[in-house]
Amino acid sequence: MTDVESAGRRRVLGATVALAGGALLPALGQGAPRLEKPIPATGERVPAIGMGTWLTFDVPAGAQRQARLAVLRAFFAGGGTVLDSSPMYGYAEAVLGELLPKAAPARVFNATKVWTPTRLLGVRQMEESFAHFGVKRFDLLQVHNMLDWETHLATLKDWKSAGRVRYVGITTSHGRREEALAAAMRRERFDFVQFTYSPADRDSERRLLPLARERGAAVLVNRPFDGGGLLESLKGKPLPGWAREIGCEGWPAAVLKWIVSHPAVTCAIPATSNPAHMRENMAALAGPMPDDALRRRMAADLERLL
Predict the structure, then answer these.
(1) What is the distance between the alpha carbons of residues 49 and 35, in angstroms, rounded to a whole number?
(2) What does residue 142 show for φ and ψ, rounded to 5 degrees?
(3) Of the residues 7, 48, 106, 290, which has the fewest C-beta atoms closer than 10 A?
(4) Sign of dihedral through CA atoms 195, 200, 201, 206?
(5) What is residue 63's predicted lDDT score, i.e. its pLDDT?
């Protein structure tokens, strides 16, 4: 989580409404139901809230790195499995490789990316990612920000056939290269696509989300809190009455429920370096989810408030 997001979240916590007359949302226990959504290519289901590592896990060795272990443990205790990283994120892959054995989760869905030009450099970089994670197979390998994507996709297809990769994907963020991504999606069948979607950035509703459904691609949503700006904009504003209908005590879970209840979205991947914030994020996996009518009400209120 960026400093802006962390500060915004602290202020937002003071602005949430009490759910008068209703029970507080319980912590997710091992047997509690959690929202899972299918990967269209196979039908495999994954929890709808994952974890990103941009900025938050780019930390050197020492106490700061060990502090991220509590974040991972909160993530897995809340029912998460999907971890998304990239060589672009500095130390993040190495940090995950060091801390995951200590967290000892029952299940991990490891996702990372290739972010370099040319086949030779791409293969070298991806082999380094295998070494960082300490795995022989990735659940998902993605071409980061479409960099030399046609070259890397050929490698990823070969590795998928060989069993080194289960799913292949492509990414963009901040609303960049939407037209190019749409063209790539029409040309190739990707198991996963990753792009930005939030109440503060709904551009993907027009083309990318419908196209993902049409092409049978799972969707990972990055920047669900708009880099923290969304929570900053909501500071001091009480949750509307619909929060009770979906069991939300705070804005983070409410925003995430709105995002992952979109029928094309498979999983949102917010990032944080704070275990308490991680628990707030994972609360979005529990309780009722908004239907289409409620999503429209939520969108109208969020547009008014942002």
Answers:
(1) 8
(2) -125, 150
(3) 106
(4) positive
(5) 87
When pLDDT is averaged across residues 41-55 and rounded to a whole number, the result is 98
* pTM for this predicted structure: 0.90
Q: Which one, of 49, 59, 57, 116, lies nearest residue 85 by Cα?
A: 57
Q: Render pLDDT for 240-263 as a digit per residue (tens, 0 to 9).
A: 999 999 999 999 999 999 999 999
Dist CA 37 CA 49 (whole Å): 10
Average model confidence (pLDDT) across the chain: 91
Please write the tens of the pLDDT for every residue from 21-31. 222 333 344 44
**Rg of the chain taking only CA atoms, in angstroms:** 19
Residue owning tokens 């198991």: 191
Q: Convert the chain into a string of H (helix), E (strand) and C (coil).
A: CCHHHHHHHHHHHCCCCCCCCCCCCCCCCCCCCCCEEECCCCCCEEECECEECCCCCCCCCCHHHHHHHHHHHHHHHCCCCEEECCHHHCCHHHHHHHHHHHHCCCCCEEEEEECCCCHHHHHHHHHHHHHHHCCCCEEEEEEHHHCCHHHHHHHHHHHHHCCCEEEEEEECCCCCCHHHHHHHHHHCCCCEEEEECECCECHHHCCHHHHHHHHCCEEEEECCCHHHHHHHHHCCCCCCCHHHHCCCCCHHHHHHHHHHCCCCCCEECCCCCCHHHHHHHHHHHCCCCCCHHHHHHHHHHHHHHC
For 204, the token pair is 């993907």
In angstroms, the CA 276 to CA 134 distance is: 28
Provide the pLDDT confidence category of residue 62 given band limits of 50, 70 and 90.
confident
Other beta carbons less than 10 A from residue 233's beta carbon: 18
Other residues' Cβ atoms within 10 Å of the Cβ of residue 35: 20
Question: Cα–Cα distances in Å, from 106 out to 77, 87, 103, 272?
Answer: 10, 25, 9, 21
Q: Residue 187 is encoded by which pair of tokens?
A: 């040309």
